[in-house]
Amino acid sequence: MSYLVFARKYRPMLFEDVVAQEHVTTTLQNAIRNERVASGYLFCGPRGTGKTTTARILAKALNCSEGPTPTPCGKCSSCTEITSGSSLDVLEIDAASNTGVDDIRSLRENVRYLPASGQKRIYIIDEIHRLSAAAFDALLKTLEEPPPHVIFIFATTEPTKVPETILSRTQRFDFKRVSAIDLARHLGNIAEKEKMVVEAGALKTVARKADGSVRDALSLLDQIAAYAGEKITEADVIAALGLVDSQLLFDFTAAIAARDSKAALGLIDTAFQAGVDVNDFVGELMEHFRLLMVLKADPELASPLGLTGDDMARLTEQAGYFQIGDIIRLMKMGADLNYDLKSGLDHRLVLEVAAVKMAEMEATVRLQEILTALKDPTGTNGRGDLFGQSEKKKG
Length: 395
Ligand SMILES: [Zn+2]
Known about the structure:
This protein is an alpha/beta fold.
């Protein structure tokens, strides 16, 4: 039996199986039910969120021997051919590798033919924004007067680069980045089907790392299963993906909050001894700061990030050590640090300098405190007090 990666093995076959894009799939099903299917669709959204998968399901729904139907059978010759990519009526074009006007011209010749066996000829053009201007023009002529048996489904990660003339002739659907909670649940279901035992913390870590992409989440799960087998702990995930242990991020941030540059440098030493990749560390640290910022701005926003229980309590505690202005300045320093790491300077040196800068950073003085001090120059909240405090901090 050949080995199938999870992303292929668990590719959704029905609209209902597409993860967390109900606003799109329900509308498409209703359009099929009500015989209001458009001749052109534009699916927008981040990579790995189900755009081409949904396009293929739509193609099956229209050409199924039982169709058009919102629930394609998956068994008839049309459905199985579309699944295997051998259907003569469903053509997939990757605009990233077919940017030329010639391809679109041959497509224009091609659309004249009636469907070979299904009811529609369906053209799925992925990364449509990559087409050249001339190719767009050629395509537009077909889009303006599409033969009744033709349906175009365009997909793009960058809708702002799609010309207005295409936008105005298609129905647009926006696919969302999938939340960490939905991803973790999806991964949990697959793990169960695969009879894998995966810790909840491990699922959450993979889900967060996948950053909204179902495809990435499943590839990561493949990678971890290859590493750890059928029993997967959070520590396995950290080791398999070369992630930075979250304890290190908490400790490092605590050192900065305590203005303890010695402790911060000690932690960098520990990280280097453990072989942590500097770029990964900085990336994860920025993500940690980002979580603190989100929690500080609005704790409600944190739960869709997949934070629960322990992590949430610890992050909330750390967020309490900083003003939001401090966190933003730390993130700015992190961005500078990322830039410096590309400069060819010694990574350890760059990181150590940044760590000391972060630890020595003065806490943001709230605007309100300054205003109060200026209004009352002689009082206890006066200028003397304010400047006296910052003098002390410098020392
Ligand atoms: Zn079918």
